[in-house]
Amino acid sequence: MSVFRIELTKEEQLRYISHLDYYNLLQRAIRRAKLPAAYSEGFNPHMKVSFASALAVGVTASAEYADVELTKDICQPEFFDKLSAVLPAGMRLLRVKKIVAHQHHKSMNALADMAVYAIQLPENVHSDAVMTAVNAFNATSEVLFLREKTGKGNKKGQVIKKIINIKEFVATDLQYDTANNVIIVNIKVSSNGSIKPAEVIASLQQKYLLQLDSNNILINRNALLSAGKNFIDLL
User: Is 93 found in the same domain as 7?
Assistant: First the structure.
């Protein structure tokens, strides 16, 4: 048995597929590559592939991470070449690293503590207005935002409302690249929850009256980190 950690992209062609569909694409690629994937036991066995963190629909990623368990040992170049050759458009294999036994003790989901997002704003947005909103956001300790989501379980179908302080989940000041019209936001990830980059943008719109067409905003997750390192370099 062996376990490989892989670093993948989720590019523009796959922007609007769900995390489950992305997961299924990877599984199909592993089968096409004829890699000796391990499966769980029981009535409904599933391939032993685990991702670091689910990505929202409409968000691309420069680096997604997954652990893939195999039933027998193969060399790292063979794994990389076979899988890379069959991945669909929009999913590129960047790096692969074998996990040794003593390293595979905690899930990436549990280790993740920060996500770095690049928010590409529309070309027609005036940079002075964005800078004013970003500076005001950075200067305050509290940015309240009304989060609404549809309930699950016995609250299925209900709209659940909760007021959150966006600033509690932002790790550093927002950075605004005026030349490229991009906002960089570092978001904390923890067992206490997190926020979506879209909620940061929505708070800038609501609290600082920043006029943006949400349909023309592109969001990319540049990095997912644990103690400042990506999940390949952790090994």
Answer: yes
